[in-house]
Specification:
Strand order of the largest sheet: 3-2-1-6-7
Distance between the termini: 53 Å
Largest sheet: 5 strands, antiparallel
Helix content: 25-40%
Radius of gyration: 19 Å
Number of strands: 7
Length: 224
Amino acid sequence: MRILMNNKRGQFYLIAAIIIIAIIVGFAAVTNFYKKGGVEEKKIYYLANELDVEGSYVIDYSVYNSQDSTALLRTFAEEYGKYAGENRNIYFVFGDKNKFIVATYDEYISGTIGFSGTGTELNQDIHDKNFKTKTCDATKIDQDENCGLNSGSDTIQFTIDQDGEKIPYTFDLNEGENFYFIISQDIPGRGRIVLDKPTNEGGRIKLAPSGSESNDDEGGSKPK
């Protein structure tokens, strides 16, 4: 039992270390862009690239150390969302062809707080965050458990409700462990930017500001 507890503690510290290193490096890099403007936009691009790399690190670690990769990725998704999810929504899809997990880390307004006393009343929204997971097991008969998928399916479609519009994202399910993500953030003066790791494109990034068509060119329309 003590060995098991030590292993779990070691996994937590490993994932925490990966996240902290990624965030430190990321913040250091984006400061170099500051004088060029568009800092928030460049942060989200850097975060997307970091998620791609760090997710692969977690999978490699689980394989080399015979650990449960799905459990590690779930912990990674939750911890990464806490540190990097401010003012943005992050969605994760990970697992294999028979069983995968959809994890969401999004912001919501839980209430408001009012200030007065200077002759002017000010109401400030209170932002909170949700971390939710949904497990889809294609080997189960019940549709609520298998999410309508067939065992061994090569693709899954993940739909996000954005301002009442359902936006579908299709991901390949390759042999072994899969790890995909979607990051959504509203950038002042730029609109909504959605970055993902899409099908068959490795780390390609897709730019989809609100109010305009998405750019599907290789590499996306990254800021200069």
